[in-house]
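Supplementary Methods. Inverse-folding protocol.

Structures were first reduced to a discrete structure-token string of length 657. This string, shown here, constituted the complete conditioning input.
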């Protein structure tokens, strides 16, 4: 895939015929060329040839790839050391806000992920061809991305020349710029959309030496699948990684690449995370409908959803179908996301008795899911995506239950793990390998993803959060000093202050939201009501104009809503259910009219993990809201909150002014 479909000096562009430029664009276009796209290119070429005829010593690129989004910028112009990012809206009579956000997103993408653009001035330009002329201001942000210029087909050159004369900088070598290392870190929604459209994982994910490449993990699993097919054997792979390392992306890529029903290898992505499944299914369907519309075709939302539901399924629907029949499923390859959250024996048996009428059901969820795939007479492959310290709900078994089932009943399955799987964060201190025969245990280091990609501003954020929760003060201070300038974490006692900060930070379509613990019942007096609930589809996907969306900063998501997903900027609202006292954490549950101490060690771990989830959801930065409490309310006494605030302040977190 070429980074740009067409890239030449401005002189060469002006000399090239319209037909030759169109031919080169068409040659490199990856998908079927629609009349709408062809006509759009022709209009852009005409406008640019007319407007840029006075330009010299510039470099122009058409359809420059933005891998993180699986999209392309209409035009990039490199002039006088400045990167201009042009988005055309042919026939548009207004500079619409959605289009302004779009071109800002492209500019930010280059700034954050394109190495040669990190220190460069980047000017987004929205060209609404039929819009009236407007006055522009050149307003820089701290990162040297400027507020967008608004132009039309008649004053584009005028605006470009004006901006370049004011911002002229050290020259850019356009060839080196085009060849620059690109380190995209897509959100899981962006990644799913790009993969579903046919983009390959290596084009939308980081491939630098600092991270174990996602494509390496995928290729390792592809090799295991091929070997299992060839030798007619059954295999299970455990993919581990730090929060935000790309486990879900790896799983989606595997399911997408191996989604081959005709060759007898139907793969499916399964998750027990209801909000994640719902959001991804909806996002893919909306995107497919929009793509069809842009190409002049009709596609109903219902039809689009039926396709996405075959690719991404709720694991409980898969389970229920397997309960209904005794035959092997059509799927030969299944990816279980967040497999550590599968239910233990007690939880599964209770559910089956109460909800399904199976009075004698005696298998944990991991054991049952393995048994379903074991129905195949020849080969099958299970890929378990495991997040350390991610169990957050009653009955979630962790890793031990998978290995217990394999040891007891499925000794002939080949087991593939990385060396990292022995870490206590995954095993809870249990020896999960004790009875596995060495013949069936295979160590593959590529099955661990050690670098967080969610927090692209800093790969140390997940380590910092772990140190905070482990009360490792020296490690916290050391890590925070390393990231504080590139990944802001602020403290506040004011919900309105937190909202104002989020709004001041977000640009383009960068997503903001307020998140909190599901046990944060006493935040209700400050307007955070966890019992109200959210519709994940609306909260994560709807736009700034929708009061149900995360942008409005009114409805709050809990750890159950947001696990596996992420936002750009978050406010983490901290209640008294998890409070720091005398050098350690206290674990509390609100019952009736008072806080009660949690004594059960498993429930303590769930609560700690819930805060781990909340504190690792922000890609760019967060503000932690700890209310001041109320001396007149014995459920919100100031001392319930002050010690936690003081702990976080003492380790170096700055207070929001």
């Amino acid at each position: 895939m070429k980074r740009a479909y067409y890239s030449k000096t401005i002189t060469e562009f002006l000399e090239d015929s319209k037909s030759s430029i169109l031919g080169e664009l068409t040659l490199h276009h990856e998908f079927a060329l629609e009349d709408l796209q062809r006509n759009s290119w022709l209009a852009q070429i005409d406008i640019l040839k007319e407007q840029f005829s006075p330009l010299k010593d510039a470099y122009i690129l058409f359809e420059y790839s933005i891998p993180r989004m699986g999209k392309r910028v209409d035009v990039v112009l490199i002039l006088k050391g400045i990167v201009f990012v042009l988005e055309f809206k042919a026939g548009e009579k207004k500079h619409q806000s959605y289009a302004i956000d779009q071109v800002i997103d492209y500019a930010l993408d280059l700034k954050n992920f394109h190495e040669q653009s990190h220190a460069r001035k980047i000017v987004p330009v929205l060209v609404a061809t039929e819009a009236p002329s407007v006055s522009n201001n050149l307003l820089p942000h701290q990162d040297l991305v400027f507020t967008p210029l608004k132009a039309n087909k008649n004053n584009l050159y005028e605006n470009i020349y004006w901006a370049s004369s004011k911002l002229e900088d050290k020259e850019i070598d356009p060839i080196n710029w085009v060849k620059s290392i690109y380190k995209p870190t897509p959100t899981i929604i962006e990644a799913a959309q790009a993969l579903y459209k046919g983009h390959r994982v290596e084009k939308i994910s980081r491939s630098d030496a600092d991270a174990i490449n996602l494509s390496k993990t995928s290729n390792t699993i592809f090799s295991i699948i091929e070997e299992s097919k060839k030798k007619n054997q059954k295999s299970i792979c455990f993919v581990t990684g730090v929060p935000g390392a790309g486990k879900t992306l790896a799983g989606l890529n595997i399911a997408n690449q191996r989604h081959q029903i005709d060759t007898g290898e139907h793969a499916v992505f399964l998750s027990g995370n209801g909000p994640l499944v719902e959001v991804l299914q909806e996002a893919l369907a909306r995107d497919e409908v929009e793509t069809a519309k842009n190409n002049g075709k009709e596609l109903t939302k219902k039809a689009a959803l039926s396709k996405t539901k075959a690719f991404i399924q709720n694991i409980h629907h898969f389970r229920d179908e397997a309960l209904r029949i005794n035959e092997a499923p059509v799927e030969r390859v299944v990816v279980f996301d967040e497999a550590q959250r599968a239910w233990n024996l007690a939880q599964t048996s209770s559910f089956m008795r109460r909800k399904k009428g199976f009075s004698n059901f005696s298998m944990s969820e991991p054991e049952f899911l393995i048994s379903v795939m074991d129905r195949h007479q020849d080969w099958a492959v299970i890929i378990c995506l495991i997040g350390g310290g991610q169990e957050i709900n009653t009955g979630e078994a962790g890793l031990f239950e998978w290995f217990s089932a394999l040891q007891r009943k499925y000794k002939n399955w080949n087991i593939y793990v990385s060396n990292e799987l022995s870490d206590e964060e995954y095993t809870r201190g249990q020896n999960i390998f004790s009875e596995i025969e060495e013949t069936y245990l295979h160590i593959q280091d590529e099955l661990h993803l050690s670098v967080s990609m969610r927090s692209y501003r800093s790969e140390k954020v997940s380590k910092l959060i772990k140190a905070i929760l482990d009360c490792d003060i020296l490690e916290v201070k050391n890590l925070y000093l390393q990231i504080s300038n590139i990944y802001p974490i602020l403290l506040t006692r004011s919900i309105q202050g937190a909202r104002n900060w989020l709004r001041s930070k977000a640009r383009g379509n960068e997503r903001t939201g307020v998140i909190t613990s599901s046990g944060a019942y006493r935040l209700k007096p400050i307007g955070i009501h966890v019992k109200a609930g959210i519709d994940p589809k609306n909260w994560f996907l709807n736009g700034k104009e929708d009061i149900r969306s995360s942008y409005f900063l009114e409805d709050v998501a809990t750890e159950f809503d947001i696990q596996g997903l992420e936002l750009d900027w978050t406010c983490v609202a901290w209640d008294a259910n998890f409070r720091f006292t005398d050098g350690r954490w206290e674990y509390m549950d609100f019952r009736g009219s008072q806080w009660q101490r949690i004594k059960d060690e498993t429930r303590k771990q769930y609560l700690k993990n819930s805060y781990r989830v909340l504190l690792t959801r922000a890609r760019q930065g967060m503000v932690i809201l700890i209310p001041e409490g109320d001396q007149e309310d014995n459920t919100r006494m100031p001392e319930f909150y002050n010690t936690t605030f003081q702990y976080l302040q003492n380790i170096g977190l700055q207070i929001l002014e």
